[in-house]
């Protein structure tokens, strides 16, 4: 019951700070912009292809491949927004209340400290799921209405994107028990930057058959598995023909192992466990 109370307080905090609602409003703006842009680009592509592509079957394949490419590109941007939103709604959750001494009022109630952390994480997780379904689902719906294309393995792909957000929550939870809000934000964004840069180093290294570059990318994924999870999600949702083509932004020259999902789960659980331990020991 105490956990549900903390979950409710987390929702109220997000409402008061307007971070989640601002993310939704900007998300709607992104979906509108993407929908308008994709509509005109798609119509232009199909108009120029009608004379060069023979038969309804070939046109259907073209529609699917164009829809698949633009959907993955759109989800690439949505994935970045998910990581940013996850960091922004959670970075101040613990450290901010400690610095403002608000946490003392909560901790003085008949509630265990671990229930405070778990309740906050549960509330953040619910908001994350709503945001992922809204953004990725809205993008998929736009592409479907224009092309009748639905990506393969969409539930598995969205689950991996949600897991990516949960990894961010686990980092901010631990960072919030050690650092100030600003330092906690720097920590999570720097880790994400390492993962992002390492991902591209690994892909370029795989394309050039550089074993050293591939190992650098793998190490970066172990430090922060966010980009590895996104690459797995995008790979699952790509059309077959797109996987065989050489699209620099979406084609994977090095595919993460399924073991990365297990590692990400252990990574997340470990950070949360240390966050609970540190929060229980910290003098408030």
Structure report:
The structure is a single chain. The chain is mainly alpha-helical and 284 residues long. It has one domain. It has helices at 2-17, 19-49, 55-90, 95-99, 102-107, 113-147, 154-178, 181-207, 211-223, 226-237, 240-244, 259-281. The chain starts with a helix and ends with a helix. The model has no long low-confidence stretch (mean pLDDT 84).
Itemize the secondary structure elements and their pairings.
Elements: H1 2-17, H2 19-49, H3 55-90, H4 95-99, H5 102-107, H6 113-147, H7 154-178, H8 181-207, H9 211-223, H10 226-237, H11 240-244, H12 259-281
Helix pairs in contact: 1-6, 2-3, 2-6, 3-6, 3-7, 6-7, 7-8, 7-10, 7-12, 8-9
Structural class: mainly alpha
**What sort of overall outline do the alpha carbons produce when their principal axes are compared?**
globular
Helix content: over 70%
Strand content: under 5%
Q: Averaged pLDDT, please?
A: 84
Question: Which H/E pattern describes the elements?
Answer: HHHHHHHHHHHH
Strand element count? 0
Number of helices: 12
Q: How many domains is the backbone divided into?
A: 1
Unreliable sequence segments: none
